[in-house]
Structure formats: structure tokens, C-alpha cells
Amino acid sequence: MANVILFGEPMALLTADTPGKLEDICHFTRSMSGAEVNVAIGLTRLGHHAQYLTRLGDDPFGRYIEGALKSNGIGTEFITVDPVYKTGIQLKNRTTDGSDPYAPYYRKGSAASHISAAEIDALDLDGVDLVHVTGIPPALSQSARAATHRLMDRAREAGIFVTFDPNLRPALWENEETMRQVLNELAGKADLVLPGIAECEVLAGTADPEKAAAFFLDKGPKAVIIKDGSDGAYLFTAEGSTKVPGYKAEKVVDTVGAGDGFAVGVISGLLEGLPMEEGVRRGNAIGCIQVMTAGDNEGLPTTEQLQAFMERRSVS
């Protein structure tokens, strides 16, 4: 099994049991949230070995998350426990019309935001095949930003393949200019960049896939995959480009985690030595499965479920 490191902030997610305004809900169901959590769970369900790199608070939510990661087969040896700062929390309302749920989070000053470059220097990267980074950790704090840079630098120095999903969270950043500058710097340290078409407009100044891909490829990545929702995705390398069509959802239930599901498909394909176009096709399929399932990661399929879906469903 390939060894993957995912760097980010897992949060305790409290999802409303019934539709309505969060302030009116009395009962919630606890689970985990976090873009990197979703990718880690997806990869383990497809038979890969994932390690989560983060910092948790020494509190009930932190202990719950560590146990939940382990129960999902995710390695926790790269997790440190902070005796002072607390684990982040996210709330999420329940929708019934396929619209994006309201999901405020409470993570300012969280334990994960206090991770440092020194912790990255202490990591043993022997045997690691791939490092997956998103644009969320560098938005949390200056120390987490430095840790993100250091992780990507160390991975590249060690010859480890690096994937980067910008995963824009404007509310976490000081301002849009800083967000754009930092994320574009990080994109230049990756082997593969995975922006959405709307993210390209913010980061590259264009929603034109070819122009956006040229913008990112000029920074040094080997490949850029631009997600375009149900329409599929565009794959660009120095050798050329291709459009990989998406799958049509029967009914959109919950859009959260679709991009993370896409990353699962692409990364699993890389780890298994598949042609990149096939990994993109997998990503399109998992993204479609995700939006048809309630929850951040409940719909992420096993290998058998993914194969069955791709065999019986046609692309849009």
C-alpha cells in the first residue's frame, strides 16, 4: 500500500438532525470535517495507507477525532497534541433542496493553527510516496503557513510527489491579495495542481481553462487539472491537454466534499500507476457520488462500489 501524508485541520462537525436555522436546532449528530479528512478517508476506502499530519487539542473533540481517524484506518503517528489550544469546531445545517449548506466554523486560534515549521522538520519522510496539501492550512496562521511551505519544500527535496488543491477559503485570509500570492507560490512547489474553474478566476485572473493552465504550468508543476463540476475536468500537461467528461447526478443532495472526492480519484490513480486521464475519470465519478450522498465523506466509495458505479453509469 502506498503511503500518503495529508496535512490539514480536522474539525469536530456537528450536523443538524433536522432542516432549519442552526439557532433553532436542538439536536446534532457529531462527525469529522475537513477537506484533508475527506481525502484521507476516500483513499483508505480504496485500499491506500494515509497518514494525517495535524495538531489537535487535548480535549474531548480532539480525542474523538484521533479515535475516528484510527477507526477509518488513517494513521495518526504524525499528530501532535496541544495542551493549551483547542480543537476546531464546525456546525452545518441540513438542506433538502440540493443547495450548499450553511456551515460556520470556530477555528481561530485552534490547536492546528499553532503547528510550526519545526514540527515539519522533525518528520521522518522515509517511505512516503505522495504528500497532499490544500490551501487551508496556510490560511490559519503565520506559523501554519510557514509549516506548509516547509512541508512542500521537504517533500520536493526528497523526491516525493506533491499534489496541491487551492481549496479557497477567503474568510480565513487577511485579504484576497495575500491569499492569491501565497497560494500561487505554493502551486509553484507542487507537481500537480487541482484548482476549480472559479478558483482559476481568482488565482490566475481568468476562467479560460487553457489560459489558467498556462498560468500554473509556467510556475513549475508537471500537470494541472481544472475541475468544472458536472461538466467534468480539463487535464493539462506540457505534452498537451484533454477534456474528461463528468457524470450526471441523479439528484444533488449535498455538494460538500465533491472536490475532495475528485482529489481522491486523481490521487488514487497516481498511486496505482494509472494514466492521469483515468485518474481524472475516477475523480469525476467520485465527485458525482459525493453530491448524491448527504455528509462530507459518507458517500466516498470502496473500490468495488466505484467500479460498479463507473460500469453502470454513462458520462454527461
From TrEMBL:
Q: Which PROSITE patterns match?
A: PFKB_KINASES_2
The cross-references to InterPro entries, in alphabetical order and at most eight, read: Carboh/pur_kinase_PfkB_CS, PfkB_Carbo_kinase, PfkB_dom, Ribokinase-like
Q: Name one GO molecular function term.
A: kinase activity
Q: Which UniProt keywords apply?
A: ATP-binding, Kinase, Nucleotide-binding, Transferase
> What superkingdom heads the lineage?
Bacteria
* Family recorded in the similarity comment: Belongs to the carbohydrate kinase PfkB family.
The name this protein carries in UniProt is: PfkB family carbohydrate kinase
Protein species of origin: Faecalibaculum rodentium
